[in-house]
Amino acid sequence: MVAKREKIKKIKDKGKQRADEVRDRIGRFQSVNARLTLIIVAMIVVVAVGLTLTSVLMSTAGLKKNIDDSMQQLAL
Predict the structure, then answer these.
(1) What distance in Å separates the CA atoms of residue 35 and residue 57, rounded to the nearest whole number?
(2) How far apart are CA 6 and CA 11, in angstroms?
(3) What is the pLDDT of residue 39?
(4) Rg (CA), the chain
(5) How many helices (H) and strands (E) does the chain have?
(6) How far is 47 from 75, CA to CA, in rounded Å?
(7) How far apart, in Å, are the Cα atoms of 76 and each of 60, 62, 67, 72?
(8) Rounded-to-integer distance, Cα 14 and Cα 59, Å
């Protein structure tokens, strides 16, 4: 009877240990997923800001050129 109880206790302990291991693995994966998501979002934001700045600068330069050309034509 005692041996049977010890076997049951060992099985329960193994089950708890495996459950703890699975929780640890899931926690690590969630942490990695969160980091990866943050890195990807940050990269997308940096690229979007860079493209926005580039387009603003290019359009500003184009508008200045058009204004200069228009003023020269009006002056003549």
Answers:
(1) 33
(2) 9
(3) 92
(4) 33
(5) 1, 0
(6) 42
(7) 25, 22, 14, 6
(8) 67
Q: Quick: pLDDT tens for 30-61.
A: 777 888 888 999 999 999 999 999 999 999 99
Q: Which two tokens stand for residue 65?
A: 């050129």
Q: How far apart are CA 11 and CA 17, in angstroms?
A: 10
How wide is the angle at C-alpha 13 spanned by C-alphas 12 and 18, nearest 5°?
100
CA-nearest of 51, 73, 54 to 65 is: 73
Tokens of 27: 């926690």
CA distance 18 to 27: 14
